[in-house]
Write a structure and sequence with these properties.
The protein has about 290 residues and is mainly alpha-helical. It has 12 helices and no strands. It is globular and about 50 Å long.
Length: about 290
């Protein structure tokens, strides 16, 4: 039992590190549409192989309308996230995305017609304060930094909606098959739009990094996360997932020399702590980005 728990803790921690590494791929000198299209294509191919190897049998079919809606939301989430990285920086993109539990709780409160608890109100105010810090003193001196922060919030909102709808479908559909279909939809949705993206020819190195993003940092990390969920409480997995911005910011500081100013550090503390608190109130299917 102790060995299985240790393996699960290792898996979820590695998944969090991989989740944090995804922001670094936004530094590729290519359009976010190309990044996401390649990510989804490689992830879908990997998940297809996993389904064939495991011979997974779904408890129910994947509903087309729900898969189509969540696939488009996932495309919006990923494209806006990588656009935020390119227009602002890794810290802005990951910390604005990390506000998604606030929007999830807000949407749940509206759907269930309930008033958020005092803890949720307090965590929400802390997240708003954190965003204000990175959108003020913590904003980098780049022409589109403010727009990068805005699309980072769009990334959080679209992921919150994606999680809520996916959660409903995951009760009857196998999560791996559902993720496979969603990635196929992202690929099919974005491929026709590649002609409108910035015409940047991809090098062999670019294709290799996109394969790494899709195979390891997307399909592989989700398999590690789902493995951990079967052996650990959702709150524990959520706590590790909430550390994603911390890993991303540290990676960016080391690899790309992005500054770690006081405003960024204070914002990270506020947002990560508040998100960790809110994630305890979010269903586990919504936690993996």
């Amino acid at each position: 039992m102790a060995g299985r728990r240790a393996a699960a803790l290792t898996a979820v921690n590695l998944a969090a590190v991989l989740f944090g590494s995804t922001a670094l791929f936004g530094k590729l000198p290519i359009s976010p549409v190309w990044i996401v299209g390649g990510r989804a294509a490689f992830a879908a191919a990997t998940l297809f192989v996993i389904v064939l190897i495991q011979r997974r049998k779904s408890a129910g079919g994947v509903p087309f309308k729900g898969a189509l809606m969540t696939g488009m939301l996932l495309a919006l989430h990923w494209v806006s996230f990588f656009a935020s990285v390119q227009w602002a920086n890794v810290a802005i993109a990951t910390l604005t995305f990390a506000t998604f539990p606030l929007f999830t709780i807000a949407f749940q409160a509206i759907l269930r017609r309930r008033v958020p608890s005092p803890i949720e109100w307090g965590a929400g105010l802390a997240i708003i304060a954190g965003v204000a810090l990175i959108c003020g003193p913590g904003l980098p001196a780049t022409p589109r930094a403010q727009l990068g922060a805005i699309v980072g919030v769009v990334s959080a909102i679209s992921f919150a909606l994606f999680g809520l709808i996916s959660q409903t479908m995951a009760r009857t559909a196998d999560p791996v098959r559902l993720s496979l279909v969603q990635n196929v939809i992202v690929t099919l949705f974005l491929v026709p739009n590649l002609i409108f993206a910035a015409p940047m020819p991809l090098t062999a190195r670019d294709w290799g990094l996109l394969a790494l993003l899709g195979v390891v940092a997307t399909a592989g990390s989700h398999q590690l996360y789902f493995y951990a969920l079967t052996r650990l409480p959702a709150a524990v997995c959520g706590a590790f997932v909430s550390l994603e911005p911390v890993y991303a910011i540290l990676f960016a500081a080391v690899m790309f020399h992005e500054p770690l100013g006081p405003a960024v550090i204070a914002s990270a503390v506020l947002i990560v702590a508040a998100s960790m608190l809110l994630l305890r109130r979010v269903e586990p299917e919504q936690l993996a980005p």
